[in-house]
Amino acid sequence: MPLAAREHVATMMGNEWGEQMIKGWNNAGWMSLSTQIGDRIAPLIGAEPGHVIMGDTLSIKVHQALAAALALNPGRKVILSDYGNFPSDLYIAQGLIKTLDRGHTLKTVAPEDVSHHIDDQVAVLMLTEVDYRTSRKHDMQALTATAHAHGVITLWDLAHSVGALPVDLVGSNVDFAVGCTYKYLNGGPGAPAFIYVCPAYVNKVDSSLSGWLGHAAPFDFELDYRAAQGIERLRVGTPPVIALKCLEPALDIWDLVTIDQVRKQSIALCELFIREVESRCPGLTLNSPRNPQERGSQVSFCFEEGYGVIQAMAERGVIGDFRAPDNMRFGFAPLYIDEHDVMTAATQLEEVISNRLWDQPKYKTRATVT
Ligand SMILES: *Cc1c(COP(=O)(O)O)cnc(C)c1O
C-alpha cells in the first residue's frame, strides 16, 4: 500500500464525500477522475494523452476492446490468442462469441508459435504481453507489425506490464490495449482498469457496453444512444470514485522514478533470485525464460508441492502466489523490494524445501484465493 494512500482516501472521505455529499460530483471533480488518471497512466504505456480512460474491471475492458476490434474487421471470424493468456481474457472471448452468434472462433496456440498463426483469416490478435504464470514476454512490436501486415487488429493486455517494464503503444503501433492497476501499479484491491484506443479508431468504435456515461450527453437523458467523442465513449457507468482516489498516491510515486530505472532494478533482483534459488534448491525447475529481455518482473519455479511451499513461506513473511498446477510465482517490484528481501526469500524457500516444511496438513487446504 502506498504510504500516502490511507490519508489521501481519509481526506477524500472527510472533506469531499463527508462534507459535500453528492455535490462532490461537480465540486470535487469526481466525474473527470477517469480521464485525469488515464492521462497519468498514458506516459507509463507510451500512449498519447487523451486516449486512456479508467473504469470497471479488466475483464469488462477486455470485452469492450475485443468487441470493438471485431467490429472493425467484420469479414473475418478468428480471434487468435495463446494458451498462456490469462483465463479471464479467454473466457470473455468465449462469452462474446456466443453473444455475437456470428460464427467467430477463438484459436489458442502455443505462445512461441503465435507469429506462425497470424494470417489473413484472423480478425483480432488478442494477447497478454507478459504471461501471468511463466513471466514469458511477447515481442509486442514485432507481433503487432506481423498482424498489421495481414490486416489483423491488435489487442494487448498489459496487466503484468504496466509499472513493471517500459511499454510503447504508439511506437509499437498498437490498436487497443487494456490493463489493471492493482498489480505493479499498487492501486489496491478492486482498483479500476484502463483501456486505450489508438487515435485512428477511437471515434470509429462502438462500445459493446453502451452505458449512459459513454453517451455524448448523459444528462440530457435521451432515449437513444449516441456515442461520446473520443475515449469517453468507452465509459460504461458511474466511476468508482473512492478506488480512483486510492490510485492517485500510487501514481504520485511515478513522478519520482522512471520506468527504465524500475526495469533495470527489476532485472537485477530477478537475476539474483534465480541465481540464489538454483544454487540452494536443485530440486526446483525454473519456469520462466532465462533471458531477462524475454521476461516480465516475476520469476516462477515449478514444484509439485508448490501450494504448501507458498503457504509455509507466507507464514514466514514471504508472500508469493501459487498458480495451478505446480507453479510458484515470485513478483519483484523494485518500488518496495530490495536485494535484502530477495536474499530473505531465497533463504526461506531453501529452508521450506530442504526441511519439507510444506508437508503439514495446515498447508494443504486450498484457500479461495491462491
Ligand atoms: C489479473 C488479470 C486479469 C484480471 O481481471 P479482473 O477483471 O481485473 O479481475 C485479467 N487478465 C489478465 C491478463 C490478468 O493478468
Structure description:
With 370 residues, this protein is an alpha/beta fold. The chain has 2 domains: 5-255, Type I PLP-dependent aspartate aminotransferase-like (Major domain) (Aspartate Aminotransferase, domain 2, 3-Layer(aba) Sandwich), CATH 3.40.640.10; 259-363, Aspartate Aminotransferase, domain 1, CATH 3.90.1150.10. The chain contains 12 helices and 11 strands. The chain has a 7-stranded mixed beta sheet, with helices on both faces. It has a 4-stranded antiparallel beta sheet with strand order 8-9-11-10, covered by helices on one side. Helix 10 packs parallel to helix 12. The structure holds pyridoxal-5'-phosphate. Pyridoxal-5'-phosphate binds next to helix 4 and helix 5. Residues 57-59, 86, 88-89, 128, 132, 157, 159-160, 180, 193 line the site of pyridoxal-5'-phosphate.
Give the overall shape, derived from the CA principal axes: globular
| Helix-strand category | alpha/beta
Strand proportion: 5-15%
Q: Give the class-level CATH name of the largest domain.
A: Alpha Beta
For the biggest sheet, the summary is: 7 strands, mixed
Overall pLDDT level: 97
Task: Report the total helices.
Answer: 12
Low-confidence parts: none
CATH architecture of the largest domain: 3-Layer(aba) Sandwich
Distance between the termini: 20 Å
Rg measurement, Å: 22 Å
Question: What is the subunit organization of this protein?
Answer: single chain
The CATH homologous superfamily of the largest domain: Type I PLP-dependent aspartate aminotransferase-like (Major domain)
Number of strands: 11
Helix-strand string = HHHEHEHEEHEHEEHHHEEHEEH
What's the structural domain tally?
2
Task: List the bound ligands.
Answer: pyridoxal-5'-phosphate
Q: Approximately how much helix is present in the residues?
A: 25-40%
Task: Write down the CATH topology of the largest domain.
Answer: Aspartate Aminotransferase, domain 2
Strand order across the largest sheet: 1-7-6-5-4-2-3
